[in-house]
Write a structure and sequence with these properties.
By secondary structure, the protein is mainly alpha-helical. The protein is 63% helix and 4% strand.
């Protein structure tokens, strides 16, 4: 378990400066505040405070919320037709998670997950209100492309500086890149959210110098995570975005995705040749074989069996949010501490039927909401494609457990909803249309 440092004078100064910057943006330029949330999301800078941690994204969100309060934002955009399914879905997840505390043996873990669920609700609300009042598409575009590029560069650098996760191939460690994200599977989930949005902007707006390069290096990085589900889900989401976007620039975007995929496979082959003297590392993407040395994270088959067994002990309210990893020893997994490797199983075992129902509602709404909206808007196309990819990916991985993925997904959902809400007949706002480059 990673131990984070305690607060010191320098870290306090960093958090205070960020708080006031985001407070100012929330009060004066909320659209740029949203861009700030996107840019800061992958970089946590964790420090211990009492029984929890303080991070840059949490500090930025709190500053943004205080700025919006000073601005006296009206809340009705959250109750419009486009926002209602996801806003009330996020609220239902938070309440179902809180309800599971009643059943939890480990109360602190359940409270931590409850606070995280309410944090996602706050992220969604803040972004919807900010964008509806101060749309700034240009800043959002720059933030998406810039953040994805920087994360990808930091991840690719781990081929040379060393990665925290490796895949054993022919008894040789092949690095699995993660960059500033928690792990390679989580990085693939982050890219699953980011890349469809970037691709949609590249197709549906005047081309930017940043977006196609960001898309290309992002796809290369995706392959280097060696996450089978992540590669399938993210490339599938990109294909979906390309198919549904009504654009004459599909060909250029598709070529960049194809080139990035080819380059990523080439780098993997070269890495395998240098480290293991063999090109066969690409078997990873055609094999369903589980790791023979899973370590402290177990295998999916073990975790899924344990999840079903633990759920049966408390089928209505579950065993308590955040409690799955702490209860695994009861199912014979003595040295394993991790989540269930599935959003749907994790929701069922920890929160029972209420939490599973709330999660399934949000997953369905995250696609259906945008399928009914204008596909000429890049934020709508990106939100739809990213949500479809993430829904598939989370069958075999739990990604929203990690705030760098979960918060980013709720930001993308909120951006799509804010754009959809401006199109509703009879809406009560006179916000200008988003500024495009």
């Amino acid at each position: 378990m990673h131990v984070f440092p305690a607060l010191d004078d320098f870290s306090i100064a960093v958090y205070v400066a960020l708080f006031f910057l985001m407070f100012f943006l929330g009060a004066r330029r909320p659209g740029r505040g949203v861009a700030g949330l996107i840019a800061i999301d992958p970089f946590s800078y964790d420090h211990i405070v009492a029984a929890t941690t303080i991070t840059l994204p949490k500090t930025a969100l709190i500053g943004m919320l205080f700025g919006l309060l000073l601005r006296r934002e009206r809340l009705y955009p959250l109750f419009e037709r486009a926002a209602r399914p996801l806003f009330f879905g996020a609220l239902a997840i938070a309440l179902a998670t809180a309800l599971s505390v009643l059943q939890a043996e480990h109360i602190a873990a359940a409270l931590r997950e409850t606070l995280k669920a309410f944090e996602y609700l706050a992220v969604f609300a803040a972004v919807v209100l900010a964008v509806r009042d101060d749309p700034d598409e240009r800043s959002v575009r720059i933030a998406f492309a810039g953040a994805a590029t920087l994360v990808s560069i930091l991840a690719c650098a781990q081929l040379f500086t060393g990665a925290t996760s490796v895949l054993l191939y022919e008894h040789h460690p092949i690095p699995r890149v993660a960059g500033p994200i928690e792990g390679p599977n989580q990085l693939s989930g982050y890219l699953d959210v980011m890349l469809p949005v970037i691709a949609a902007f590249a197709m549906l707006r005047t081309p930017s110098r940043m977006e196609l390069p960001a898309l290309g290096i992002g796809v290369v990085t995706l392959l280097l995570t060696l996450s089978r589900a992540g590669v399938v889900a993210t490339l599938g989401a990109l294909v979906l975005a390309i198919l549904i976007a009504p654009s004459s620039r599909k060909r250029a975007t598709a070529l960049v995705v194809a080139a990035g995929t080819s380059a990523g496979l080439g780098v993997l082959c070269l890495t395998g040749l240098v480290i293991a003297h063999d090109f066969g590392i690409l078997w990873r993407f055609s094999s369903m074989v589980e790791s023979e040395v899973p370590g402290s994270v177990g295998t999916r088959s073990e975790l899924w069996r344990a999840a079903i067994a633990l759920w049966r002990t408390h089928p209505w309210l579950g065993i308590g949010a955040g409690n799955f990893e702490l209860e695994l020893s009861k199912e014979g997994l003595k040295n394993v501490k991790t989540h269930a490797n599935s959003l749907y199983l994790q929701s069922l075992v920890e929160g029972g039927l209420p939490l599973l129902a709330a999660q399934l509602h949000v997953v369905a709404a995250s696609v259906a909401t945008f399928a009914q909206a204008s596909l000429r808007e890049p934020l709508i196309v990106g939100a739809l494609a990213a949500s479809a990819g993430l829904a598939l990916h989370q069958v075999v991985d739990l990604l929203v457990f990690y705030p760098k993925v979960g918060s980013m997904w709720w930001i993308v959902l909120a951006l799509g909803v804010a754009v959809s809400g401006r199109e509703e007949p009879g809406r009560r706002t006179s916000s200008p249309t988003c500024r495009a480059e």
